[in-house]
Amino acid sequence: MTEPGAVTIHEGDNLDVLAGFADASFTLIYLDPPFNTGRVQTKAVETARSTTPSPRRPDVVRRGFHGREYERLVGDLRAYDDRFDDYWGFLEPRLAEAWRLLADDGTLYLHLDYREAHYAKVLLDAMFGRDHFLNELIWAYDYGAKTRKRWPTKHDTILVYVKDPARYFFDSEEVDREPYMAPGLVPAEKAARGKLPTDVWWHTIVPTTGREKTGYPTQKPEGILRRIVQASSRPGGRVLDFFAGSGTTGAVASALGRDAVLVDANPEAIEIMRRRMPHATVRPRP
Question: What value does the mean pLDDT take over residues 1-16?
């Protein structure tokens, strides 16, 4: 049985907390920031959005992340959509910090919905370089109400970037496999083992009466995070999630023998994580 990894929970503004972490200290960073939907969804999401946007740090972006192209792109997008500056003014410095904290063999997963994924892909290409882009993952689910006025929206997007395209860690052998859609077309041995997932992941949301349910409104299913942690980190490695919410990243990473660092400013999230991971060390606001 795998020895559980350590979990450390930090309560506070993530940008302030991240400043205390050493460069290149995490192999895997998963981020599920509040989606820029243009409407208040829940108390938890509203709390995350209400954080005062940190000032832009063009010196960081300009020196490290293809700054000239990036600054021009930001200006163009801000002129196109006046909501852009509020959301990306909040998110941009946090992404720059994530990149600083990522080890040379590390991978960044950014989980967004369809409203921001296209902006994010272009911006991250400009910030980090197109050659650092690894995958666009589509998490597809089929649950909840469906409009009849357009194609119902039932997917999220996870953008995957690697710190060094020549050195990143990826272990496909450790990933949970999934059933073949047409098992009769492959040998019985292959059908029994299952197939390696592609970049489209069919996975249910957190069941309302399931074991995983914490009551946190933006909770993501363990199956999605387990696949990410298995593929892009080693046992004993360090995993970071600084929009931690219900703590799914930490719960999964710890169960797989990784050490997790979680950050959130919402007291409700901190309390849920305390109950979910009683072995965690909690560091309150300074």
Answer: 94
Count Cα neighbours of 101 within 13 Å in the Cβ-side half-sphere: 26
Which stretches of 81-221 are DSSP H helices? 84-101, 117-128, 188-193
Q: What is the domain count for the chain?
A: 1
Is 248 within 8 Å of 276 (Cβ atoms)? no
Please identify which residue in the block is written with the tokens 């946090």: 94
Tell me, yes or no, whether 88 lies in a domain: yes
Its pTM stands at 0.87
Q: Which domain holds residue 217?
A: 7-283
Q: Are 274 and 282 within 8 A, CB to CB?
A: yes
Q: What's the pLDDT tens digit per position in 65-98? A: 555 567 777 777 777 665 666 778 888 899 999 9
- The answer to whether residue 1 is domain-embedded is no
Q: Give the chain's length.
A: 286
Please tell me what DSSP assigns to residue 38.
S
C-alpha 159/C-alpha 100 separation (Å) is 18
Going edge to edge, which strands form the sheet with 200-202? 200-202, 133-140, 155-162, 102-112, 26-31, 238-241, 259-264, 7-11, 281-283
CATH number at residue 204: 3.40.50.150
